[in-house]
Amino acid sequence: MKKTNILIVMTDHQRADTVLPENPTITPNLDKFSSDGIIFTNAYCPTAHCCPARASFFSGLYPSGHGIWNNVLNSMAINKNLTKGVKLWSEDLASSGYKMFFTGKWHVDADETPVDRGWKEFFVSCMKGQKHGCSWERYEEIKKNESQEAPRKEGEIIRPGYGNVVRYGCQERTENDHDEKVVNDAVNILSGMNEKAGPWCLYAGFTGPHDPYMVPQKYLNMYNVEDIKLPESFKDDLSDKPYIYKRMRNQIFDQFSEYEQRQAIRHFMAYCSYLDDCFGKILNALERSGQAENTLVLYISDHGDYCGEHGLFAKGVPAFKGAYNVPAVIRWPSGIENPGHRVNKLVLLCDFAPTFLELANCKIDRHFSGSSIVPFLKSEGAENWRDAVFTQFNGVELYYSQRSVITEKFRYTFNGFDRDELYDLERDPHEMRNLADFPEYEEIKKELCRQMWAFARKEGDPMINNYITVGLAPLGPASFS
User: Fold this and answer.
1) pLDDT, tens digit (0-9, with 9 covering 90-100), for 115-152
2) Is the pTM of this model over 0.90?
3) Is 447 exposed, middle or buried (0-12, 13-18, 19+ CB in 10 A)?
4) Could you give all domains of the chain from N- to C-terminal order, each with its CATH number?
């Protein structure tokens, strides 16, 4: 049987709702693509952070399995390398005869590049030899140049001693810009494809719409700031949430006026429109190659962006839906039996490793945290599919112990550093009212806590220390059900 070609386009920081046709974000290529494919509306990352999310995508494992918890190119990383013995699906595909092409963002392991995991490399970013974070030498420069007198510019965040940053603006693209290189590589690779080339797998990894939201004027012109609506949760005062959430908002994003909040959202949406244009160029190249019929195309992101939810932007410790719900859209003309519909089941980034391996007819006998979604492509549905997804978060460059259980009805989050959270997602979809301390929800909270520990046991999560000052969950690990 002829093996399926695989084309993956992964963005960085893109919210799931931006790919829905009814969303005000202007994405004509994705709209057409979705009508010919399937939208997975409830796809989630296990951690809203680039490196652990990408490691989960490529390995099919949670952070407790692959070992990556935060930015591997930062000195504060808990681990900089994948756990010894962890294998990526790209290695399996390469071994089974796939030609593997990689261009764009890596950000999985500090001492490896894609070529170490079965890929042929083109342009690669966020790889070994690079370092993320600020040095003392850089802070010396900031100290010399920092002015206490200069007025704040539009879109600027004042950060005494850290250096001010501008979070949105207009920036034209050149052929040397990251995402332009990715598009050009992908188009050139696809131009060499024909019936005799396969099977093949191409990964194109963009850095947009990661903050700061710097966008060409052409795409900003698609949106009027007066038409931009603030999220329903923007009015949340965060008084019943962990204090760090309120601190992030008050100290950072409350510097923006309401006009600037709308401008930031406008720029984020415009950035998504730019990426849609990039995606369209890649799809056109695939069509010209004559390979579209037998190619599964996945449009996905590593994690989302709060984009004004609860007055926040970017991502961090708050486990709000905007940061964890990712776009996931698949088109496969020869394989999808009922295109143009949506799947609302809970899907994980970890599900794509076993999916790709099934499509490639690879017989693999190792543990995956995820399950193949091929049954959803075949209109069969999946028996006994999960009714909850879980998160594992140990911080960004500031450490936090946080685990979540997300079902169709509730989200429970155990925050080892502050108060827990419980939201009724049916009555309160914007996660405004924290019910964790309400006595009438105590049994629901405990049941979700049991599920949390059951999943932790299954995945070998190390967050089970029982020392008196750290065993702070309402029920401990021995309560797993």
Assistant:
1) 999 999 999 999 888 888 888 888 899 888 887 778 89
2) yes
3) middle
4) 5-135+168-386 (3.40.720.10), 401-481 (3.30.1120.10)
